[in-house]
Amino acid sequence: MHAVGAAELSGSVALVSDGQALRSEEAAEAVVYFRPATPPKVTPAVEPYVMGTQRKQFVPRILPITVGSQVRFPNRDPILHNAFSTSPASTFDVGVYGNGDGQAVTFAQAGYVRVFCNVHQSMVGHILVLDTPYFTRPDASGKFVLKGLPAGNGDLVVWHDRATPWHQKLAPGGKGLAIQLDLIQKRVPPHLNKFGKPYGRSSDAGY
After folding, report:
1. pTM score, whole prediction
2. Is the peptide bond before 172 cis (omega within 30 degrees of 0)?
3. Mind listing the pLDDT tens digit for each residue in 80-99?
4. CA 174 to chain centre
5. How far apart are CA 81 and CA 55, in angstroms?
6. pLDDT tens digit string along 26-80?
7. Among 126, 129, 125, 91, which Cα is nearest to 110's?
8. HSE-up of 50 (CA within 13 Å, CB side)?
9. C-alpha angle 118/195/185, rounded to 5°?
10. Biggest alpha carbon–alpha carbon distance for the chain
11. 207 neighbors 78 (Cβ within 8 angstroms)
12. Cα separation of 150 and 173, whole Å?
């Protein structure tokens, strides 16, 4: 899906919370992307991405996609779920539904989209809609490689929902980067339901 090119960027991502280093595999939730100075052509994915609901969680919790792509929200639990967002980049509500494929939503605008469930307050997903095809995730050791990049300067960004994004203007090549993110945000941010009201006491009822 990437344009032909010989340049690459590599490095490693480490996560820290309350001054303590987290396990290296936890860095796999971060998203690493490169935005060239000259905006690249971005093609929506042919098939929808998937953010399912499983054991009262959105899976995957963090999902990077290209702008214009669709995301489907299948329910893999034996209970009712919902997926909605009031984020400026994309406002949607797929309704309350049982086990099954669920609806697909098109994300036409680049930006960060928080996804919640109107049934369960503790459920939160994060969709990063990117205007660049050059993105990846760190592996279980925290290392990443972006290949096939165009020559010239650009902006390298490392994003995680619980940290301030790390970014640096640079050109592909050179030595591997060692990047550290300090997780300072709550895993489940305070939020209201899709009607703009507090959740009820039974909003996280069991199966």
Report:
1. 0.92
2. no
3. 999 999 999 999 999 999 99
4. 27
5. 11
6. 999 999 999 999 999 999 999 999 999 999 999 999 999 999 999 999 999 999 9
7. 129
8. 11
9. 60
10. 55
11. yes
12. 11
Q: Partners of 181 in the beta sheet?
A: 15
Compute the distance between CA of residue 122 and CA of residue 187 in angstroms, rounded to an integer: 9
Q: Which two tokens stand for residue 194?
A: 């899709």
Q: Show the tokens assigned to 100.
A: 């099954």
- At 189, which amino acid appears? P
Q: Residue for token digits 């009607």?
A: 195
What Å distances lie between residue 99 and 73, 74, 78, 82, CA to CA?
11, 7, 6, 11
Q: Which residue has the tokens 């998937």?
A: 50
Asked whether the beta carbons of 35 and 154 are under 8 A apart, the reply is: yes
Strands (E), the chain: 7-17, 20-21, 31-36, 49-50, 52-53, 58-59, 62-66, 70-72, 81-87, 90-97, 104-106, 111-116, 124-130, 135-136, 143-149, 154-159, 166-170, 177-182
Residue with tokens 């994309």: 90
